[in-house]
Amino acid sequence: MAEFEICGQLVDVVAGEIYPARVRVADGRIAAVERVADSDVAGKGYIVPGLVDAHIHIESSMLVPTEFARLAVRHGTVATVSDPHEIANVAGIEGVRYMIDNAAASPMKFHFTAPSCVPATPFETAGAELDVAAVTELLSDDTIVGLSEMMNVPGVLNHDAGVMAKLAAAKQLNKPVDGHAPGLRGDAIRHYVGAGIATDHECFGLDEAREKAGLGMQVLIREGSAARNFEALWPLLNEYPELCMFCSDDKHPDDLLHGHIDGMVRRAIAEGVAPMAALRAASLNPVRFYKLPVGLLQSGDAADFMLVDDLERFTVERCWIDGACVAEAGRSLVESCESGVINRFELGPVAAADFRLSLQPGRLRVIDVCDGQLTTSQSLHAPLVADGNVVSDVSADVLKIAVINRYGGGTPALGFVRNFGLQSGAIASSVAHDSHNVIVVGCSDEAMAQAVNLLVEQGGGVSAVSKHGERLLALPVGGIMSGDDAFLVADAYAGLDHMVREVLGSTLRAPYMTLSFMALLVIPDIKLSDKGLFDGCRFRFVNLFKEDADV
Fold this sequence. Notes:
Largest sheet: 9 strands, mixed
CATH class of the largest domain: Alpha Beta
Shape: globular
CATH topology of the largest domain: TIM Barrel
Number of helices: 16
CATH architecture of the largest domain: Alpha-Beta Barrel
C-alpha cells in the first residue's frame, strides 16, 4: 500500500487538542504525526477521525452492508456498531452470518452485536428464534462486539430465566450489553442498569436522558429516518460529554444519500456544542466503549480518518479507511460486489374480502401516530360502516391497517391508525419491525389487497398503489433488503416516498419508516401484530372495539 502525507489542522480527540500537523500514512496505519507551523497548513482543512454510527440496523437502509458502505463513506462514516436483529427475525443465526459475510467484502468496518430478543415478544410470529445457546454462540465469536439492545424490559425487571442467561453470557465474555428502555424511570431504570445494561438509544426527553446518564448509562443520541431525538437531547453533550454517542438506529436509503453522522456533528456544533465534544461522541466514545479496532489518528492506529473543509460546514472532502481513499468530493470510491439472497416469504395472494371487518359494539381503538417518534398514543372513534364492513374513514384520517403473517399466512390482524394522511390508495411493506410480517395501510380494502399482492409476487418489498398506477421496490434479501446498486435503490425509494406524499397525500416525513414501526410491540402505547392489537404499556392484547365498560 502506498505511503502518503497529508497536512491540516489535526483534531486529536484523545488529547483534546486541535493543532497544525503533518500526518504520514504507511501500510494502512498512521506512521507519524508531526506538529508543524500554522503557515504550513493554511487553507488545507481539518484532519478528523472517521465517524462511527454507534447503533444501527443496516437492514433498515434496505441495503446489504456492502451497498450501505458505498453511501455512508461519502459522509465520513468509517465504522458502525450494527444490530442484525432484523435479518435474524427472518432467518435466525444464518441471517446474522449472512450480514457478517457480506460486510467482510467491504472496506467499511462493520461491527455486529448478537441479537438478544428474537423474536422481540411472544405476541407475534417471527421467522426464527435465537435462544440462549444461539446467542451465546454468537457472543463467543470474536467478530461480535456485544449483546444487542435488550428490548424485553419486563423480562429484565422480572428476572426471566432466559433473559438473565443471555445477560450472564455477555458478562462472562466481557462484552457490553445495549439497552432499549423508552420512558423507563425511577426504580425500574435503576433495576435495569443494575442488571448490567449499559446503553440506551430510546430517550425521547432530556430529563429522561439526564436520569439515565446520572446512573452511568451511555446515552446514544439518535437521529434516524423516523425517530429523531437530536433536538431534544443535544444539551446532554455539554452536561455528560463522556457518556454521549451518536447513532441513527434506522436510516432509509434516500436519507443516507444526503447525510449520516456528519449531519449530527454539524448540528451539534451549530448549537454551540464544543467541536471536541461533538467529535468525541462521533468517534472516541464509541471506539472506546465497544473496543473497536478503529483508528483515532494516533501514531500506530489504523488510518481511518477524513479531511473536512472546516468544523462548521463540516463538508467531507476525502475519507480513508485503513489508508485507502474510499470517498472524494462527494463520490464513493467503493465498488459494488455480488451479494447472495437469503429469504423466508411464504405468504400467498390475498383478496379484498380478507380485510373485511364486521361491526361490533363499541368505538374503535385507534393508533395515533406521532410524526418523528416511534411511540404512539390511542384514541377512540366511531366506526364508519359500509355494507356491514367497517371501512377507512378518510375524511377523519382514520385508516384501516393490517398485519399478515408472512411465514405461514393466515387471516390479517386488523386495526385503525390516524395521522398517516392518505387520501387514496394504499401502501404496504414487508419491512415491519421486528418480525417483518407484511404490514399495509390504506383507504380501501381493494387497494390494500393490491398493495400486498405486489409484495407477494416479489418475495417482499415496499409498494404503493393509487388510481393512477402502482410502484414497487423489491427487497428479495430477507424481504427487507435489496442487493442492487445503492444509488439506484435510493432513487427508487425516493420515487415511492414522493408518490406516497404527493399523490396519495401522506403528511408524514417518512411514511414507510413510520409504517414499519406500527408493528413494534415493545414501543408503547399501542401497536398491531399479526396476532392482534397490543397494549405496549400493559403488555397484553386489547379488543379493537372498546365498550364503555372495558378497561
